[in-house]
Write a structure and sequence with these properties.
Elements lengths: L1 H5 L12 H6 L4 H8 L6 E4 L6 H8 L3 E6 L2 H12 L9 E3 L5 H4 L5 E6 L10 H14 E12 L1 H7 L2 E4 L4 E3 L2 E10 L8 E11 L2 E4 L2 E5 L4 H10 L3 E5 L7 E7 L6
């Protein structure tokens, strides 16, 4: 479960955002365009809020934000972050699996649901992803939009097993952090892959590291569109940026029907 994978990572997760990213949140062109299409005061749900970086960015843009994450530890970090903006009120930030969202939020209440940061790859397979999408659709108002941000897993898989080191070092409170990622990909596309996230901390002359392992379920762009349609969404659109292994998908809850 995503919550289990991220339990120990919560305290270190902020290191994986540059200082600008901590303010802007997910700022890809597709996500930025989706936000620009919302009226001030629109009710939105960050359905994979992590430590609250994106939820806080949405609040700063004048939106009425609720947030959820499967990890209790991530949710506690998110509440602390949102407290600064008055966005941590009762029932506003909850620990919830995607399929349990209708138990926490009123049906048909949100103008938009965001599930960014490659989070949907933690759905264990096709059935689990469709069930997650159905739950997200149920809390969207008719005509509301779902906004997803994902790796293009075909590009990730073609690149093969590898370790990458972020060129930019994060420097906070006299501690420097070098961020590394090691991909362990299955031979057959579609089988689960593993990402080892290893921050290396430099404190004066001392160096230390911590290692976190998360599992993700690859899917193709076509499979994502098909699963969104199966879950009852329409107007499904996927953008693409040449040379980038990430993309944004948007889908709309139909104005009529359930």
């Amino acid at each position: 479960m995503p919550g289990d994978q991220y339990r120990s990572l919560a305290a270190d997760y902020h290191w994986f955002f540059d200082d600008v990213d901590l303010q802007l949140g997910c700022d890809t062109p597709g996500v930025r365009a989706a936000i620009a299409g919302l009226e001030p005061g629109s009710r939105v749900l960050d359905a994979a809020c992590g430590i609250g970086v994106d939820a806080a960015a949405l609040l700063r843009r004048g939106l009425d934000v609720a947030a959820a994450d499967a990890s209790e530890e991530m949710v506690e970090q998110a509440r602390n972050r949102l407290r600064e903006f008055g966005g941590d009120g009762p029932g506003r930030v909850v620990a919830s699996a995607w399929t349990n969202l209708p138990a926490h939020f009123e049906l048909g209440i949100f103008d938009a649901v965001f599930c960014v940061g490659n989070s949907i790859a933690h759905a264990a397979g096709e059935a689990e992803m469709v069930a997650a999408f159905e739950a997200m659709r149920s809390v969207l108002a008719p005509g509301g939009i779902l906004v997803l941000d994902s790796h293009d897993w075909a590009i990730v898989h073609d690149a093969g097993n590898r370790m990458t080191i972020e060129p930019r070092v994060v420097d906070r409170d006299d501690i420097r952090c070098i961020r590394t990622y090691t991909w362990c990909l299955a031979d057959d596309f579609g089988d689960p892959c593993v990402l080892d996230i290893v921050p290396i901390f430099l404190d004066g002359e001392r160096a230390s590291l911590r290692s976190y392992r998360v599992q993700m379920q690859p899917f193709t762009r076509a499979e994502l569109k098909e699963r969104l349609a199966t879950a009852g969404f329409e107007a499904i659109a996927l953008d693409a940026i040449p040379g980038d292994d990430r993309y944004t998908a948007t889908a709309r809850r139909p104005c009529g029907g359930a």
